Amino acid sequence: MAIEDPSQPHGLKLLIEDYPYANDGLLLWSALQGWVRTYVQAYYPNPRVVQADTELQAWYAEAVRVGHADKSGADWWPRLDSPADLASLLTTLLWLASAQHAALNFGQYPLGGYVPNRPPLMRRLVPAEGDPEYDNFLADPHRFFLSALPTLTQATTFMTVIDTLSTHSADEEYLGERRDSYTWTGDAAMVDAWHTFAAEVRRAEEEIARRNDDPARRNRCGAGVLPYELMAPSSPPGITCRGVPNSVSI
């Protein structure tokens, strides 16, 4: 979906320009990447320090050999030999646990809350040719589809589950937020770096809002088109159209 291009703001050229997930995701990826690189460089200034940290190396070895034992012998695993390696691994983990999770999780109810749009199961198989039901299926596939939908109990149970999964609690913390923003560490330089990161996240949210009001972006603005808010870094409690990156920090 993208190719490397140093002339682009994030070093990538999207093959589909109006691609909200990627457009907004790059803003948050860049913010996370800058924050992680700053943090890692402060405590792991050279490759020797990374390689000599036995706890760090044991953590990564366990993740590969135990957590993914079936793939542990693959030759595509990233190495952990330098500050750049560590920053890349941590940025990926933070991205998966925050922005990407939000994009996959918090949009479930708007998509599946209307069960015919995304049935959790179908109670009838599509009949094969020669089956007595086959002619009825061909004659009225719409009626067949409705007859195969979940029962009322099954449908409401499914709706309840994805309602719970898609709901934002009143006490959620989001990217760029923390209650102890000045006291989480005694390292003043890292406190300042975190506030720089938080400011970049806020700018990303403002840019996302601007994009959602841009009529030239037809995949997120216009008649019958919902704004793309799955990457917006804040949200009120409850179910909204947006998904919210979870608060994950180092």
- Our Rg estimate from Cα atoms comes to 23 Å
CATH topology: Lipoxygenase-1, domain 5
Q: Hey, roughly how much beta strand do the residues contain?
A: under 5%
Shape: globular
Mean pLDDT: 91
The CATH class: Mainly Alpha
Largest sheet: 2 strands, antiparallel
Helix coverage percent of residues? 40-55%
Termini separation: 30 Å
CATH superfamily: Lipoxygenase-1, Domain 5
Domain module tally: 1
What spatial order of strands do you see in the largest sheet? Answer: 1-2
Q: Please provide the count of β strands.
A: 2
Would you summarize the structure shown here?
By secondary structure, the chain is mostly helical.
Explain what this protein looks like in three dimensions.
By secondary structure, the chain is mainly alpha-helical. Helix content is 50%, strand content 2%. The chain has one domain: Up-down Bundle (Lipoxygenase-1, domain 5). It has helices at residues 20-43, 47-52, 54-65, 83-105, 108-112, 134-139, 141-148, 152-166, 188-212, and strands at residues 2-4, 12-14. A hairpin with a 7-residue loop joins β1 (2-4) and β2 (12-14). α1 runs antiparallel to α4 (83-105) and α1 (20-43) runs antiparallel to α9. The longest helix has 25 residues, at 188-212. The chain is globular. The relative contact order is 0.16. Residues 242-250 have low confidence and may be disordered. Keywords: Dioxygenase, Metal-binding, Oxidoreductase. InterPro entries: LipOase, LipOase_C, LipOase_C_sf. One of its GO terms (molecular function) is metal ion binding.
